[in-house]
Design goal:
Radius of gyration: 18 Å
Distance between the termini: 36 Å
Largest sheet: 6 strands, mixed
Strand order of the largest sheet: 6-7-8-3-9-10
Number of helices: 8
Number of domains: 2
Strand content: 25-35%
Structural class: alpha/beta
CATH superfamily of the largest domain: P-loop containing nucleotide triphosphate hydrolases
CATH architecture of the largest domain: 3-Layer(aba) Sandwich
Low-confidence stretches: none
């Protein structure tokens, strides 16, 4: 079970946003996509889930070429921007999205409560989402992504705006899912997020400039800081 990306390219008009990107992410692995805003991380994630039509290359998930609706039940996606319904409660949002994944009854209710408790939203589950803070909305989006226990998780800036204590528990959950066999891609522009992953791919100007274990990447720097690799790439351009 893996995600395989070969020579992926994407243009917006004349601007090349992804430049022949190739990656393989395996079962039981968390890959961190690390890069500055505008590097192409979000475009890459949206391409992987089939939400964007690409201009070249191929994406294959578990032997199925993207896009394919057969994959929707296997993929959990958390966008960078909230995609939840403000005029519904937190619980109603989970019920709605659970229904899309053909979840129902006690199984849906129990799983929803589990996610709400894990993300510290249980006491607020009957509040309208319009009353939620930005961080609460972020946590609800993550609960929705995890709700159907997907084999593949693609998370775009999942812990931005979340307090450090809760962030720690969320990463513990990610590692638990990894140990259970999930294949996870997390995008971030925060260095210490990458350091929570065993493997990191650095995205810069639409290209993967480094892809290795995080430990090996740190060893290649001049000062022990992964950020230095971006400066090295810029200096060598």
């Amino acid at each position: 079970m893996q995600i395989v990306i070969n020579g992926l390219s994407k243009y917006f008009g004349k601007k090349k946003v992804l430049d022949e990107v190739s990656l393989t992410v395996n079962t039981g692995e968390i890959l961190c996509l690390l890069g500055p805003s505008g590097a192409g991380k979000t475009t890459l994630i949206r391409s992987i889930i089939g939400a964007l039509k690409t201009n070249g290359g191929e994406i294959v998930i578990s032997g199925i070429t993207v896009p394919n609706l057969k994959l929707m039940y296997d993929i959990g996606f958390m966008p960078q921007e909230d995609s939840i319904y403000s005029d519904l409660t937190g619980a109603d949002n989970l019920a709605f999205f659970g229904g899309l994944y053909k979840m129902k009854g006690k199984a849906l209710s129990d799983r929803s409560d589990e996610m709400l408790k894990m993300l510290d939203l249980y006491e607020d589950k009957n509040k309208l989402v319009e009353e939620y803070s930005g961080g609460m909305k972020k946590r609800l989006s993550l609960a929705i992504a995890l709700l159907h226990n997907p084999k593949f998780l693609l998370l775009d800036e999942p812990t931005a705006g979340i307090d450090p204590i809760l962030r720690k528990s969320i990463w513990e959950k990610f590692n638990q899912l990894k140990d259970e066999g999930s294949c996870i891609i997390v995008s971030t522009h925060v260095i210490d997020e990458a350091e929570k992953c065993e493997r990191t791919a650095l995205v810069y100007n639409g290209k993967i400039i480094y892809d290795d274990t995080t430990k090996n990447l740190i060893a290649q720097t001049r000062n022990g800081d992964i950020e230095d690799l971006f400066f090295m790439a810029k200096e060598g351009a």
